Amino acid sequence: MSRDPRAVLKRQLVHLGAALALGALAYLLPFPGMPEPARRCLAIIAIAAYLWVTEAVPLYSTSFLVVFLEVFLLAGPLKLDAGVFIAPFFDRVIMLFLGGFVLAETLGKFGLDTMLAGAILERTGTKPRRVLLGMMFVAAFLSMWMSNTAATALLIGMALTVIRGLPDDEPFRTALILGIPFAANVGGIATPIGSPPNAIAIGVLAEHGIRISFSKWMLIGLPVTALLFFFIWWLLLRLYPPRVAAIALPPARRERLSGRQRAVIAVFVVTVVLWLTAELHRLPAAVVATLPALVFTGFGFLDTDDFGRIGWDILILMGGGLSLGVAIKSSGLADWLLAALHVGSAGVIPLTVVVMLVAMAVTTFISNTSAAAMLLPLAAGLTGQPAPLVLAAGIAVSVSMILPISTPPNAIAYGSGLVKVRTMATAGALVCAGAVAAILAGVLGVSKLLGYL
Fold first, then answer.
1. Cα separation, 239 vs 47, whole angstroms
2. CB-based contacts of 114: which residues, under 8 Å, 6+ apart?
3. Beta-carbon contacts of residue 351 (< 8 Å; ≥ 6 apart)
4. pTM
5. In sequence order, what DSSP letters do the residues of 54-113 get, joined into one string?
6. In angstroms, how far is CA 321 from the centroid of its own chain?
7. pLDDT by residue (tens digit) across 204-249?
8. Cα dihedral sign, 97-98-103-104
9. C-alpha 362: how far from its chain's center?
10. Distance (Å, rounded) from C-alpha 327 to C-alpha 42?
């Protein structure tokens, strides 16, 4: 049913008015010792946060508003060129994610994601616990390199074929329908291109002089993903133990790879190897990301329509978050937060736990990319050692999976009609509880190893 355009416009204007009022209130609050540019930056954060939470306008539109307000309110007082706030929209992490989007679009166009899923599931066997493990592994692995939404949609379709052959009262139906989105959510943690918050975290830390390469991120993200993956698998089997002894999987399609499919695989492998060996050849990951973009667009693997379908809205949203991070640092708001809140004496572990819990709570109700754009720049300003906080919060927003609205994979699973909100919330809350310990162990351990602590 179409909505009345006038009613939509009226609603948007009301929300914009409320956002501006909230920004004015944030500016006028009596924070002692806060510099004038920091007050203006706080007002921008309040406006952006309101619009990102309410989604009164498209999320990427708010990013455009952020950079407009930064240039209008901060560039002059700080004597900064406007390009300082615009540059993050083509930051190296944006280029890295663009390359990841191009790879994912090409894999999907040539059906290689479906072929990989079928080939792996063919080898899982028929025992329910192995079927669940196989489905979850495919969802997690694909989500390391492509949209977890697309990975979930692909696997849910396969799972529904399996579920239709099970009795209506079989608990394993619930384990299967929850295992796929939950595994897709945590799979995106493992690589920088797996989830937009990862890239935002890398960009925010770069503003503080901390460079995290592709392989360094995987050193942090992959162990956390593995811990959560097996915890989710174990948890779902305990909550919804299978009664059937065997599961009938649909037969995998056996097709010969075409020349173009082989070329796509070759470019994918070369790109990943170059990303993982950046410490040896010294090519930045963002430069390596241009390889698939160049080959696939230049040689006709992707046409103009294909290129237009990649996640430009996500890239713009990420750019807004990175630009906000620049404003928080350059306006003096980060320094003021560090001095005024006196959180440095709280200790890294309790502070990291608090930041993670806040990130999970916020992401329960809004997009994880929006939450990362709001929270990560602020988290970086809370301590003189920003790496653990930013990394933990950046990962935490990806594992908050309590409600159907928490993540797109959750929404897809709920849309199947096979799981109730209460069921998803119970399992998702237990996953979040386990995630706090897994993230804390992974992030603090690797941060100490890499000298960030």
1. 42
2. 154, 253
3. 343, 382, 383, 389
4. 0.82
5. HTSS-HHHHHHHHHHHHIIIIITTTT--THHHHGGGG-HHHHHHHHHHHHHHHHHHTTHH
6. 13
7. 998 888 889 898 899 989 999 999 999 999 999 999 998 888 777 6
8. positive
9. 14
10. 10
**Residue 123, helix vs strand vs coil:** coil
The rounded mean pLDDT for the chain is 87
The first and second tokens of residue 222, run together, are 């992959």
Q: What residues does each domain of the chain span?
A: 93-177+235-308
- Contacts of residue 278, defined as CB under 8 A and 6 or more positions apart, other chains included, come to 213, 214, 215, 284, 285, 288
Residue 6, C-beta contacts closer than 8 angstroms, at least 6 positions apart: none
CA dist 228 and 287 (Å) reads 31
Residue of 89, 63, 85 lying closest to 76 (CA atoms):
85
Q: Which two tokens stand for residue 48?
A: 């952006």
**Tokens coding 39:** 């007050």
Distance CA 331, CA 389 (A): 21
Lowest mean pLDDT among 164-168, 317-321, 326-330: 164-168
358-385 pLDDT, tens per residue?
A: 889 888 877 788 888 888 988 888 877 8
Distances (CA, A) of 192 to 28, 327, 442: 38, 23, 16
Give the number of C-alpha atoms closer than 13 A to the C-alpha of residue 103, restricted to the C-beta side: 27
Determine whether 300 is exposed, middle or buried from the number of CB atoms within 10 Å of its CB (0-12, 13-18, 19+): exposed
Q: What are the tokens at 420?
A: 């109730």
Task: With cut-offs at 50, 70 and 90, classify the pLDDT of residue 343.
Answer: low
What's the rounded mean pLDDT across residues 99-124? 84
- Contact between 62 and 52 (Cβ < 8 Å): yes
Pairwise CA distance, residues 235 & 175, whole Å: 9
Structure tokens of 56?
């009164």
**What are the CA-CA distances from residue 433 to residues 167, 363, 411 (Å)?**
31, 15, 21
Does residue 1 register a pLDDT over 50? no
Helical residues (DSSP H) of 303-407, grouped into ranges:
304-308, 312-330, 333-341, 348-363, 368-380, 386-399
